[in-house]
Specification:
Layout (H helix, E strand, L loop, with lengths): L1 H11 L13 E5 L11 H7 L4 E4 L6 H5 L6 E4 L5 H11 L3 E3 L6 H14 L7 H15 L5 E4 L7 H10 L3 E7 L6 H10 L4 E4 L16 E3 L1 H6 L4 E3 L10 H12 L1
Parallel strand pairs: 1-2, 1-3, 3-4, 5-6, 5-8, 6-7, 8-9
Helix pairs in contact: 1-4, 5-6, 6-10, 7-8
Length: 257
């Protein structure tokens, strides 16, 4: 795919250091062409794990800043499109990588952070952050029951986000997305907790004539606004990328507003 090739090409420009560098405190975040939101809990957690210097391609101000990524101790891969670039860097620059995924269910975020710490031979305590995310879920449950439809142009996995919203008391009427084999797990979970949710292929030509069976109270995703033009919408596709507990709390605040 083009975006995979672009990432590989950019990674190929990094020059292998002539002298093996001291890498213990530096880390690259690979995933998006835009930066992470500054208040993401991923940053303090990485600092707790010993990485005081966190580099992102989108925040490099000079070519020298970019070349400094070749001196990092680890690549943290947040998007599958960056995995081939990380594999190339592991082979050519001797920089190992760990993959993380953006989740919105607090329990999955907690398990992933704990797994990251274990992979690095240490441990972290994210109890406070986990409890804050759970509190945000509890507060939104106090609102009246409501229905929501989810699109695909948003900073989230639509199926995994649907599972979060269902746990918050929402009724997810429709999901407009493109499915592949990697969606089988969340699709099975969704079938158990919300068997009446309708799924629509976003690339299907018939979507040009889409007419909703029911009108939800809210839609999430920039493309969902086009399918439900008279319904309140949260695009949730800003350039800065949410991640971790911060993503959950911020989205729930948007929904409550």
């Amino acid at each position: 795919p083009p975006m995979v090739q672009v990432r590989e090409t950019i990674a190929s420009l990094l020059q292998k250091p002539s002298i093996k560098p001291q890498r213990s405190q530096s880390l690259n975040i690979l995933g998006y062409f835009s930066p992470m939101v500054p208040d993401s809990d991923l940053f303090p957690i990485l600092r707790t794990l010993g990485f005081s210097n966190i580099r992102q391609l989108s925040t490099c101000r000079t070519y020298r800043d970019f070349q400094a990524m070749a001196h990092s101790a680890l690549n943290l891969v947040l998007s599958p499109e960056s995995l081939p670039a990380a594999e190339q860097m592991a082979e050519r620059l001797d920089i190992p990588y760990i993959t993380l995924r953006r989740f919105y269910t607090p329990g999955r975020i907690h398990k992933q952070y704990q797994a990251l710490a274990r992979a690095l031979g240490t441990s972290i305590d994210d109890t406070r952050l986990l409890n804050e995310a759970k509190a945000a879920i509890c507060s939104i449950r106090n609102l009246c029951p409501r229905t929501v439809a989810i699109g695909s142009r948003l900073n989230a996995d639509p199926l995994e986000l649907a599972l979060l919203l269902i746990s918050c008391g929402f009724v997810v009427t429709d999901i407009i997305t493109t499915l592949d084999d990697s969606d089988a797990y969340f699709l099975a979970l969704l079938k158990e907790v919300s068997p009446l949710t309708r799924l629509h292929g976003s690339l299907d030509p018939s979507m040009a004539f889409f007419h909703p069976e029911t009108m939800p109270d809210l839609t999430i995703g920039a493309d969902a606004a086009a399918y439900y033009p008279c319904v309140a919408n949260i695009p949730w596709n800003e350039e800065t990328q949410p991640f971790g507990y911060q993503a959950v709390i911020s989205l729930l605040k948007e929904i409550a507003h």
